[in-house]
Specification:
This protein has helices at 20-36, 57-67, 82-93, 114-122, 140-155, 172-178, 188-191, 218-232, 235-263, 271-304; strands at residues 7-13, 45-50, 71-76, 99-102, 127-132, 164-171, 199-204, 311-315. By secondary structure, the protein is of the alpha/beta class. It has 2 domains: 7-213 and 307-315, Spore Coat Polysaccharide Biosynthesis Protein SpsA, Chain A; 235-304. An 8-stranded mixed β-sheet has the order 7-5-6-4-1-2-3-8, with helices on both faces. Helix 1 (20-36) links the parallel strand 1 (7-13) and strand 2 (45-50). Helix 9 (235-263) packs antiparallel against helix 10. It is elongated and about 90 Å long. The two termini are 25 Å apart.
Length: 318
């Protein structure tokens, strides 16, 4: 492989007007360094994907693409979600690049490890994961919940990379194969390892967000975790079945207990246990119905085969 590669960086953006000028400045400076080192060629590009932003994100992307030939833009017709925005960018640049890197716009992922990712690609890696070396900047709650999430996903059979989000390099070969995945319910960090190509990792310390607000508050993080679990494993349904048998056994034991209490003349004392049993079984039923309903909802989304994203506009000949 030629040492100088055609690199595309895909940056999903949702209401990122506060950070985009600095993000573009740092990435352009990095591009200049990598070109000077003959690591990437003049055709390499930075592609910002506007995921239906409500602020001036697209206007900034439009202006940047007019000022710099290295910058291109993709405007989605509506908010398709982070995972679909990443996919839209990757699928758009797939035919033009040697490799593509996806990274968020907030500058929390360290862009200075990108040259190392490209070198690993040159050495033969088809996929290179950006992995956080430590989580010292996270709160104790976020750190413990994140670690718990990775453990749960591992236990459910997902070959997921701990402390890796969506900062990764994928070769054109990997992108072509990934384009064959038809899922509408995307969980990229669980799907990419399924490709099975030669992979490696680069480690970095995550920075504080440069500007703006996080697009992943607690509610969205919980929703994303549930999407990951239900999109990638049917084990929760098996767990519910097992739990159902346990509850049935518990109900039989409580029935025997109630009969014994009646013959002993202690029927009034059974009221509390009866109520607890009713509430417990009712709660388990609601959880089970909700879980099964989630899977049915995902089946409903898949069989409709609606497009995962709709592109409204391109910038700089994409």
């Amino acid at each position: 492989m030629n040492k100088s590669v055609n690199l595309y960086i895909v940056v999903p953006c949702y209401n990122e007007e506060a950070v985009l000028p600095e993000t573009s400045r740092q990435m352009l400076a990095l591009f200049d360094e990598m070109k000077s080192d003959d690591l990437i060629n003049e055709k390499s590009r930075i592609i910002f994907v506007d995921d239906g932003s409500k602020d001036k994100t697209w206007q900034i992307i439009d202006k940047l693409s007019d000022e710099y030939e290295e910058i291109g833009g993709i405007k989605l017709a509506h908010n398709a979600g982070h995972q679909n925005a990443v996919l839209a960018g990757l699928m758009t640049v797939m035919s033009d690049c040697d490799c593509a890197i996806s990274i968020d716009a907030d500058l929390q992922d360290d862009i200075h490890v990108i040259p190392e990712m490209v070198r690993k690609f040159i050495d033969g890696c088809e996929i290179v994961y950006g992995v956080r070396g430590k989580r010292d900047t996270d709160t104790a709650f976020k750190r413990s919940t994140a670690q718990g999430f990775y453990k749960v996903m591992k236990s459910l059979g997902a070959d997921i990379i701990p402390n890796h989000a969506d900062f990764r390099l994928m070769s054109q070969k990997a992108l072509i194969e990934f384009s064959k995945f038809p899922e509408r319910n995307l969980f990229l960090r669980g799907m990419v390892p399924l490709l099975g190509f030669k992979t490696d990792c680069v480690y970095y310390d995550r920075n504080e967000r440069f500007a703006g607000e996080s697009k992943y508050p607690l509610k969205k993080m919980i929703s994303f975790a549930l999407d990951g679990i239900t999109s990638f494993s049917v084990k929760p349904i098996s767990f519910i079945t097992t739990l159902g048998f346990i509850v049935c056994v518990f109900a039989v034991v409580m029935g025997v207990y109630s009969v014994v209490q009646k013959f002993m003349g202690h029927t009034d004392a059974g009221w509390a246990s009866l109520m607890m049993s009713i509430w417990f079984i009712g709660g388990v039923q609601l959880i089970a119905l909700g879980l099964v309903g989630t899977y049915i909802g995902k089946i409903y989304s898949e069989v409709k085969r609606r497009p995962r994203f709709i592109i409204e506009e391109y910038k700089n000949d994409l």
